[in-house]
Amino acid sequence: MIKTILLSVTIVLASPALAHLSPPVAEGVISRQEAVERADHLFDALDANHDGILTRHEAMREGMRLRAERASTGVDVAPGIGGHTERFFEHRFARERTITRAEFEQGMLAHFDRMDRNHDGVLTPDERAEAQ
Fold first, then answer.
1. Distance (Å) of CA 102 to CA 9, 53, 112
2. Could you please report the per-residue DSSP string of 4-50?
3. Phi-psi region of 50 (alpha: psi -120 to 50; beta: other; left: phi over 0)
4. Which H or E element spans position 73?
5. What is the pLDDT of residues 10-38, one digit of tens each?
6. CA 57, 112, 122: angle at the middle one, nearest 5?
7. pTM of the shown model
8. Residue 100 forms beta bridges with which residues?
9. Other CB atoms within 10 A of residue 10 CB
10. Residues 81, 127: Cα–Cα separation, whole Å
């Protein structure tokens, strides 16, 4: 159940009301700075009370709601950089109950750096496909 809920965080965020939270989806490369922006937009969408701390409860509640919205619209307005978000939440929430914006960014950038095989600061479609 928790895995399903957390998976929603990775593949959702489909509300037109949340469209302003996300930078445009890159068809080509994603820079490291764009990865930070995507992490920040995703964090903002999940941090329901906007206190700068994401709780397990917020992630689960917002994830479920956003997953339902994505299922009904088919639009992902805040794409991540891969399936890392779910794994990050599973690991992090197994030890603690909260995640700060900085911790969320660090987790996303660590994943970005692992996927960036040639370490040029951008993810190409090939690097993203290889990471999957």
1. 18, 10, 15
2. HHHHHHHH----GGGGGGSPPPPSS-EEHHHHHHHHHHHHHHH-TT-
3. left
4. helix 56-73
5. 433 333 344 444 444 446 889 999 999 98
6. 140
7. 0.68
8. 53
9. 21
10. 11
Could you read off the pLDDT of 31-77 as tens digits, one per residue?
A: 999 999 988 988 998 898 999 999 988 888 887 777 777 788 887 65
Amino acid of residue 35 = A
Token code pair at residue 44: 């903002």
The DSSP call for residue 117 is T
Angstrom CA distances, 119 to 29, 31, 56, 112, 114, stand at: 13, 11, 33, 10, 9
Residue type, 63: G
Strand partners, 63: none
Residue 75 is given by DSSP the state -
The amino acid at residue 81 is I
Backbone angles phi, psi at 47, to 5 degrees: -80, 85
